[in-house]
Amino acid sequence: MKHYKRWIIAGAALTAAVVLLLCVAGVFRVREVTVTGNEYYTKEQIADFVIGDGLKRNTLYLYVRYNYMEHPEIPFIDAFEVKVDSPSSLTIRVYEKNIVGYVHYLGKNVYFDKDGIVVESSDQEIEGVPLIKGLTFDRLTMHQALNVKDASIFGTILNITQLLDKYGLKPDEIRFGNNLELYLSMKDVTVNLGTGDHLDEKISRLKKLEPDLEDKSGTLHMENYTDESTHISLEASR
Predict the structure, then answer these.
(1) pLDDT value of position 17
(2) Are 76 and 194 found together in one domain?
(3) Residue 139: which CATH number?
(4) 220 touches 202 (CB < 8 A)
(5) For the whole model, what pTM was predicted?
């Protein structure tokens, strides 16, 4: 009889534990996700990286997972934080790598920051990050600077990419000539910006000219353009 009562008590306790577990699983189920700091990925992509599916969609699990355990690596992301706002909602704050451009190397897209340090090698192309051509280097190592002859070129790259972003221009590629003259490829037009002087004035003017270049092809000469000397010519393709 005593054994029978013990079985009844154990069964009741187990049932209560299962019911409690199901209640907790239901209450602490992720239903709303807020993502901040993301540009390279969509909200849905970040949520998929961090949360996944199945049992991982439990806010208690995610709190413990991302506050007391090592974070998984996500391409183009330096770090991320997970904050539980309520039993059914959380916020993911991502800190993306500071990328100014990329080069093609051995079949990969190699991304680098403002100092020329390689931060990522991937098959993926990130929208809004320009392809840089004309850089010459004899080796490439992750988390080290590209071994170029003149490291000041990275300052020029940072400057031009910031100006392009400022004026809302998105060239197909940025290219450096043998004497570090700067070229932009915009569909069928190559824009010659010269060696980097008066870039703000040149890019500002280029933005105004952009609609007129839609059906043109050739080389737009802006290497000598300044606010005082406004000569610009389009050399048609032969």
Answers:
(1) 46
(2) no
(3) 3.40.50
(4) no
(5) 0.74
